[in-house]
Amino acid sequence: MRIYNEEDVMADDSDDENSLGAIVIEALSNIRTVASLSLETIYAAEFVRLLRLRKPRTKRKTLFQGLAAGFGQSVQFWGKEIEREKMLAATL
After folding, report:
1. What's the CA gap between 78 and 20, in Å, rounded?
2. Three-state DSSP class for residue 14
3. 27: which of 20, 43, 50, 92 fits an S-S bond (Cβ 3.0–4.6 Å)?
4. Which residues contact 40 (CB under 8 A, 6 or more apart)?
5. Burial class of residue 23 in the structure, from the number of CB atoms within 10 Å of its CB (0-12 exposed, 13-18 middle, 19+ buried)
């Protein structure tokens, strides 16, 4: 399911991510039907199966994002430390 309520739900074009989002959207938009037919376990099992398919890519992507965020914060800290040292040197 690519479009829901006239807005793009999934940013990535890969099939497993689209079907992963489609499972969630379908279950939540038809929550009464899912509950009345006792389909919760089926939807949950399908969601977990699709989630496990994308786990290796997600780990790699998350690791890269974490390293990039850490590097960005260290650069900001280093820049602020240089500014602080310059201000201390100017006051002495």
Report:
1. 41
2. coil
3. 43
4. 34
5. buried
> pLDDT of 2-48, one tens digit each?
444 444 444 444 555 567 778 888 888 888 888 888 888 888 888 88
Q: Taking a C-beta distance cutoff of 8 angstroms, is the pair 9, 40 a contact?
A: no
Determine the distance from the C-alpha atom of residue 9 to the mean position of all C-alpha atoms in its chain, rounded to a whole number. Answer: 13
Of 25, 23, 12, 21, whose CA–CA distance to 57 is shortest? Answer: 12
How far does the chain reach from its first CA to its final CA, in angstroms?
Answer: 65
Query: Which value, in Å, is the radius of gyration of the alpha carbons in the chain?
Result: 23
